[in-house]
Amino acid sequence: MLRSVGQQKRVTGSGEDPRVAELRTAVARLRRELAGHPAEFPDRGIAEDELASLDAMAISGTPEIPRLRRSLLLIAGAIGSVSALAAGLRDVRNAVDLFGEPPRR
Fold it and tell me: Mean per-residue pLDDT for 11-19?
């Protein structure tokens, strides 16, 4: 079972951190939705690049929270007004939130 964010354990059968698995799933879903969205919009490339960056961070297994949040902010800014992508964006945000807040400076 999962504990508080700071005490989560690797519990998936593959030994992958469940937060990473959730992030990869959410990112893959939003990437598919974005690829299938027919309308072009000015910041589409930014969203695609940042989703690729999130995926790469997740694959590494130890994403840095400030970088996750920066990518999320850029994605939200790029596609925030496209209502058809709102559910996928929400899922990515929820997955990023599983990693907790960035450390205070």
Answer: 73
